Amino acid sequence: MHGGKNTVIKTQSVTENGTTTLNKAFSISGTLKKTTTLTTDYTTADSTANSGNQFTLTDMTGINVGDLLVITASDQYYSYAREYYYLGAVLLVSSIYNGHLYTSCDMPWDIENTANVSVNVYDAPEITIENLDFVSDLARVGYAYFVSMSMCKNSTVRNCHMKDMWNGMMFYYCFNSHVDCVTVSTGKYDNALSVDSYGICLQSCTNSIIERVNSIAAQGCLEITGFIPSINTVIRNCNASGECRSIGIDMHENAYNTVIEDCTLGGLSLYGTCYVSRCRIIKNNRVGGEFGITLRGSHNPAWAIYKIKDCEMFAKGNRAFISITRTRPQDPVQNFQNVFGSVEIENMSGGYLMIMPTIADGITAK
User: Fold this and answer.
1) Is residue 218 within 8 Å of residue 197, measured between CB atoms?
2) Helix, strand, coil share of the chain (percent; to 5)
3) How confident is the model at residue 27, as a pLDDT?
4) What is the largest CA-CA distance in the chain?
């Protein structure tokens, strides 16, 4: 299903067994208006001086306030962990003045203007999905999602229950997404390790709030990934602890500025400036020796700042519960990403630290 502006999908109807039976997923996408490029380098200093995220584009015709921008610098890297973790951002046009375009959210890094920087402009729908029970017999068929939103803005999924699809929800290049009071139970783990199901997945999204979610999945209950960074994510009052091999919150090396509060989680794999408080880490079943909380370094210390406070850990066997480690890139030309801006751990109960040699500088624990 492709939604237009201000599309609302809302129902109170139920089937005779008490749920609305939907064996077909919702797929909702924005419409590409044009692809253009930058005319000059983007710098955060220039943005600050001009009181907003300021861009100049080679072609401004047809761009309106409220349009969605997907900026990708495919020759500049946010992380070297994989060959496609590029610098960029998903932003919303807030004003256009005197040949400049301004956005409602800052992009927190500089981008050099090269031929490999693209700016895709979308007419983005606003979607509301609420009061739905999703049931499917497709749990083992393909990588389907109950709800897939692409290039959407100001969207809400509220008071929904999802059961037995391979994956729950996917947000792809979205701005201002809110998931509230949702239960997700996806495809189960099997011994062949072939079920890579996800509860809720954010792929390169900006300004996302996930709260009051109960997610059970075979691999990642709450997953953050994508080609360009997901910026400004808040996860609070959630329960994310699933099947064996699953991890509560799993961030690939392309998340930035994430706040996690008052959650019960089956493990955390963190990257890119994270703030964690008042959480209970109850287990971590991930195969391969993962730890209760894993913090990974970056090639840029400004992108590896961690603060963990007032959390409770439940150790599993002899595993370290907080692992501070470096990220090994897939590209062998690059060095290990072993730089941390700072790591602050305060008022923790249970577990212990394991810190890789040579990266102990800047770590404070009390």
Assistant:
1) yes
2) 0, 50, 50
3) 81
4) 63
Q: Report CA-CA distances (Å) from 311 to 36, 151, 212.
A: 46, 35, 18
Q: Hey, what amino acid is at 4?
A: G
The tokens of 103 are what? 């956005």
Among 195, 148, 187, 186, which Cα is nearest to 170's?
148
Residue-wise over 338-364: b if at least 16 C-beta within 10 A, else e? bbbeebebeebeebebebeeebeeebe
Q: In which residue are the tokens 């998340």 written?
A: 255
Q: Quote the pTM value.
A: 0.86
Hey, what amino acid is at 233? T
Phi, psi of 301 (to 5 degrees): -60, -25
The answer to whether the beta carbons of residues 315 and 283 sit under 8 Å apart is no
Cβ neighbours for 113, distance < 8 A, ≥ 6 positions apart: 37, 38, 39, 40, 41, 42
Side chain identity at residue 175, one-letter code = F
Report the percentage of the chain scoring pLDDT > 90.
31
Give pLDDT tens digits for 165-208.
778 889 999 999 999 999 888 755 444 445 567 889 999 999 99
Query: Residue 77 has what DSSP assignment?
Result: E
Rounded CA-CA distance 184/156 in Å is 16
Distance of CA 307 to the CA centre of its chain: 18
Core vs surface per residue 193-207: b (16+ CB within 10 A) or e: eebbbbbbbbbbbbb
Beta bridge partners of 264: 239, 280
Joined tokens for residue 314: 């439940």
Apex 283 CA angle, 278 and 286, nearest 5: 125
The region that residue 267 occupies, defined by phi over 0 for left and psi between -120 and 50 for alpha, beta otherwise, is: left
Q: How far is CA 268 from CA 222, 286, 298, in A?
A: 10, 10, 17
